[in-house]
Specification:
By secondary structure, the chain is mainly β. Strands 1-3-4-5-6-7-8-11-12-13-14-17-18-19-20-21 form a 16-stranded antiparallel barrel. Strands 10-9-15-16 form a four-stranded mixed β-sheet, with no helix packed on it. 37% of the residues are buried. Keywords: Signal. This is Porin. It holds the Pfam family DcaP.
């Protein structure tokens, strides 16, 4: 009898605890299904099947493969993504959990039979009141200002574009974060990238978001980071640090029913934060010391609504690195440009069909270049 009574008591306690924990929790599933068909013309020969450039435009991947055909077509559904979000209220404290997956960038599948690709983590974070801990968009970037393009990034050269683990504090429009550090430099007198995870100083980023009653939204961000290489590099013991910094402004300005989106960024030692790491953060000199590379980039995009179902975006994007070729090589990336124009149709709000033309050109310090022309057709259903 005692055991039954204790069992009933424990069961009631568990039920009460469950009710307290989950009664004020909202759960949401989201994401979208997206299918792309890409007709691409690479000026110097297309990369091999499955290469990153065949999934979406990445600056630095379009110089070409000698002997390969120039014109290719790719069908994919890899941008399809899924996310799950919970929002709970615990005694007036807001607790949020979020995880998001897609199937991009992997080379662990193939196009021969099943086109099976592993999911990857895009975002995974917890927010408790003003604090966010986990992987999400870097505070240095304003993802809300990205143009509505069919290409995966859409303005690859002109925008900071990083997702990484961090600890962030938000108060109104102000955000400050410590984020995962990672250094990329050119080895001395080469175009070979060295990636270093040494050092214990996190990247520090601050941002302020402004918004007017008219709908204009502008963000201003700054970053301070320590570049660090402490390892054996081609037989030389290297132990060097250098400070890097940068500033970025991005925003959305309504123009009647249309909108104008933009971003402009400058810094020294930004490296991987800009243009999908098209240029590195610095060079190692003959003494094994890091010399930071300055770089700048930006984009502008205008979206025009023809009516409530049809719209067009026109985007131009550019990036330039000021390389010291005395320290690296004439084969390092120097400049990158791309432009886009599309026509999108949404017969109903969650469903969009579109066609987009893009042109991109990349150039190295020695003047060699690569170009890409692509026509992209997409169908997207937002869950």
């Amino acid at each position: 009898m005692k055991q039954a009574k204790y069992g009933l008591l424990i069961g009631c306690s568990m039920l009460a605890l469950s009710n307290v924990s989950y009664a004020d929790t909202d759960m949401q599933f989201g994401g979208y299904v997206k299918a792309d068909v890409m007709f691409s013309d690479y000026g110097n020969g297309a990369p091999d099947s499955g290469s990153l450039s065949r999934q979406f435009y990445v600056p630095g991947t379009i110089y070409g493969e000698e002997g390969n055909g120039k014109q290719v077509v790719d069908f994919q559904a890899r941008e399809t993504r899924f996310n799950f979000k919970t929002v709970s209220d615990f005694d007036g404290h807001k607790l949020t959990g979020f995880i998001e997956l897609d199937f991009m960038t992997h080379t662990d599948g193939n196009e021969r039979v099943s086109n099976s690709y592993s999911p990857r983590i895009r975002q995974a974070f917890i927010s408790y009141d003003n604090w966010t801990v986990g992987q999400t968009w870097t505070t240095f970037q304003n993802p809300g200002a990205l143009p509505e393009n069919l290409d995966f990034v859409g303005a690859a050269e002109g925008t900071p574009f990083v997702r990484q683990a961090m600890i962030r504090y938000t108060n109104g429009g102000f955000q400050i974060a410590v984020e995962n550090p990672e250094t990329t430099v050119n080895k001395y007198a080469t175009a070979t990238r060295l990636t270093s995870g040494s050092g214990i100083v996190p990247d520090v980023v601050a941002r302020y978001n402004f918004k007017t009653e008219g709908g204009t939204a502008i963000s201003v961000a700054g970053i301070l980071r320590q570049l660090n290489v402490e390892e054996n590099v081609d037989g030389q013991a290297v132990d060097s640090t250098e400070m890097g910094y940068g500033a970025s402004i991005a925003g959305i300005i309504p123009v009647g029913n249309d909108d104008f989106k933009f971003s402009a960024t400058y810094g020294e030692g930004l490296g991987r934060y800009m243009a999908l790491n098209y240029a590195n953060a610095g060079n190692l000199d003959a003494n094994g010391e890091i010399q930071a590379i300055s770089s700048y980039g930006g984009y502008a995009a205008y979206r025009h609504w023809w009516n409530d179902k049809w719209r067009t975006s026109v985007t131009v994007s550019a990036f330039k690195a000021d390389n010291d070729t005395m320290l690296s090589s004439s084969l390092v990336n120097a400049e990158s440009y791309s432009s886009y124009i599309n026509l999108l149709y949404s017969p109903t709000k969650p469903l969009t069909f579109g066609v987009e033309y893009m042109y991109a050109k990349n150039e190295r310090e020695n003047g060699s270049d690569g170009d890409l022309s692509r026509i992209l057709f997409s169908a997207k259903y937002v869950l």
